[in-house]
């Protein structure tokens, strides 16, 4: 077992435990506040918009921060039924059910229509299939944000092909990912 697989399993297990407590969920989500704030700025997400969060995890911190920082409505997707149950309970405990909906879904196979922006988690995969499905469903110039793994985690996480040119990027200071990349859907046409 490699360090990266141990790290991923530990993180997933800790996140499921943290999702059972509002205090632990808030502590787990805290370091991502500035990450998500930069992504909100990069995608120009505003109040009243509908944002798709792909790969939300048991503590859906991206959805939580988007809802709190912008008052946007968020649809958070994850393909793991246990994670979805944990995320729903976490959102209920944080009293955010009026702004965040958590659904079971695989974005590489099906993506809901009618969203103004999408943010795809580092762990979500397969990235290129997700990208293509988002592109099929979204409107003209819809911002799509993908987190790019840092060099030391490049072999652990799936990423979009380098031949797919992003429109903008913002640096992130996380160990596992160092950039959030913006793709405008119409630009890839």
TrEMBL record:
Transmembrane segments: none annotated. One of its GO terms (biological process) is methylation. Residues 46-119 form the Methyltransferase domain. Keywords: Methyltransferase, Transferase. InterPro entries: Methyltranfer_dom, SAM-dependent_MTases_sf. The keyword Phosphoprotein does not apply. One of its GO terms (molecular function) is methyltransferase activity. Pfam families: Methyltransf_31. It comes from the Archaea. This is Methyltransferase domain-containing protein. It comes from Candidatus Methanocrinis natronophilus.
């Amino acid at each position: 077992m490699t360090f990266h697989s141990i790290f991923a399993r530990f993180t997933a297990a800790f996140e499921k435990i943290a999702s059972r407590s509002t205090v632990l969920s808030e502590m787990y989500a805290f370091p991502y506040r500035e990450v998500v704030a930069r992504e909100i700025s990069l995608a120009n997400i505003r109040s009243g918009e509908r944002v798709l969060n792909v790969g939300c995890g048991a503590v859906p911190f991206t959805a939580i921060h988007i809802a709190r920082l912008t008052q946007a409505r968020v649809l958070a997707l994850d393909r793991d039924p246990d994670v979805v149950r944990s995320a729903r309970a976490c959102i209920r405990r944080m009293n955010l059910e009026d702004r965040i909906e958590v659904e079971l879904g695989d974005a590489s196979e099906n993506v809901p229509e009618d969203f103004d922006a999408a943010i795809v988690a580092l762990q979500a995969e397969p990235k290129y299939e997700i990208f293509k499905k988002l592109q099929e469903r979204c409107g003209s110039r819809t911002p799509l944000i993908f987190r790019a793994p840092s060099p030391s985690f490049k072999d652990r996480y799936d990423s979009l092909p380098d031949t797919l040119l992003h429109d903008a990027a913002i640096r992130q200071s996380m160990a596992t990912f160092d950039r959030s990349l913006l793709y405008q859907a119409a630009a890839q046409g």
